[in-house]
Amino acid sequence: MTKTILVVDDSRVSRLLSRQFILESHPDWTIVEAVTGEDAVDKLATVIPDMILLDVNMPGMGGIAAVAKIREISTTVPICLLTANVQEATREKAHSMGVQFAEKPITQARIDNILSTLENA
Amino acid sequence: MFQLTELQHDALVELFNQGVGQAASAMSQIVHEEVTMSVPTIEFHTRAEVAQALGSVESRRICAVTQTYQGAFNTDAMLMFPEEKSLEIVRLMVGQALTPEELTEMEQEAMNEIGNIILNSCMSTLANIAGKELHGSLPMYRIGTSEQIFGASGGQWNGMVLTLKIDFNIEKHHINGYVAFLLDLTALQDLQSYLDQYLSGLMS
Lengths: 121, 204
Known about the structure:
By secondary structure, chain A is of the alpha/beta class. Chain A has helices at residues 12-25, 37-43, 63-73, 88-97, 108-119; strands spanning 4-8, 30-34, 51-54, 79-83, 100-103. In chain A, helix 2 packs parallel to helix 3. Chain B is globular.
């Protein structure tokens, strides 16, 4: 079943790599991009994603603040923080907010692992 | 004059060694090649000497990604490559997904992201080992001679600066660069306390 993934990252290269790796495994899935936390929240007015991949360190609203805003809109959409900030403190924040955590650099294996929870949903 | 004890010096090298190991692993995943990194060298310099000390072999132009970290201690972390190699590194990262024109257009953003991943990898290791949190700024990209780069970075410091320099090598593509960390005197006192806590944790 086709899915929609919202990729939120201020880095165009990271968005490109995420898109490339998602479509490599799921050519029929739809990718929507947002460049900041604010942009992601705005996009949710028109898009209902099956999963959100969310960078942490972004200008304006970062990923941690964005999780709280997104949860006001949807309490159920799966979110995965995809970040270079691999500090335990960040992992713990992700855990306490009930969202997944994955390390950058973005690789095919990491993307496949993140999306594996959706494949049979 | 600020000095580290022999034990603090050893602990600092060991901590950064672990950080560098993670950074090498991250870089290797980015470029899909083996990356080797040197043991960190630690030196003290005046701010005016830093460009010469870190860039002595770099009379050519370099590109640098800088992030400032604050928390358990404050530091300017820098990733530097020869300017003429940056496009090649970006190509290794994104593969054949982009046309040469797109690649050139994205070069700066891609280098920022590479710097973000590598510097965060190293600094996160340091934070995790000590159980402290470090807050990093967004990455900043610069191109110029080493004097221009170091003049622009942290120019507010006039006193002694500790530099940690780690050389890295992507052998198959003959790409050499380095990662450097600059700490001013105030940060050094915090660093000393961070090292003492780390050492006391080891000995308890």
